[in-house]
Amino acid sequence: MLQDRSEIRDIYNEIRPRIEARMEEFQGIWEEKDPHRIFKELVFCLFTPQSKARICWETVEELVEKDLLLDGCKEDISDNICRVRFRHNKAGYVVELREKFGPPERTQKLIERLEELPDNKARRRWLVDDIKGMGYKEGSHYLRNIGSGKDLAILDRHILKNLEKFGVIEDIPKSITPAKYLEIEKRMADFAVDIDIPLSHLDFVLWYKETGDIFK
Asked: Among residues 40, 90, 137, 216, which one is catalytic?
């Protein structure tokens, strides 16, 4: 049996001020163009696949405190991200990412490149093509977290589970190709219109419904 969609509206009415405050914070990151924060958010999103978001952010902060995020070798980074799944691969991603976009000068080039692209979907496509470990979900998450992805869906397991429950998708796909991602994103965007909740707010609502938390 499909769940009652009014439940989502009730949750949204309850937490809307908190969502709006978080979206303002993200927008401020994009307006300030702080290269260090923009780089940290990129590393955070690379850490998140199959790992808990709060643990990933705490891990990024620990790398900063230990001067490893910008200066640590792959082995030292790997040794200090034990709570993140696939830590050896992700440590390698950080080193490669730092060589491309490490703050501040190279991160400025990243910002300039994002500004050159015509829209958020083009920005996401470029991120996915150019950064190892970056998929559509991570690209959407990153752009949203730096205030530049309000029209993108973050299709993590919590979101997909609820899209199935509310009849937006028939089932949760075992794997998501780029074409399938765009198809589900379109369905979620239409669903957001139907229930009168901005797409950029809806993933917070569905995530809160599953976890009782509003984070990143």
From this structure: 137
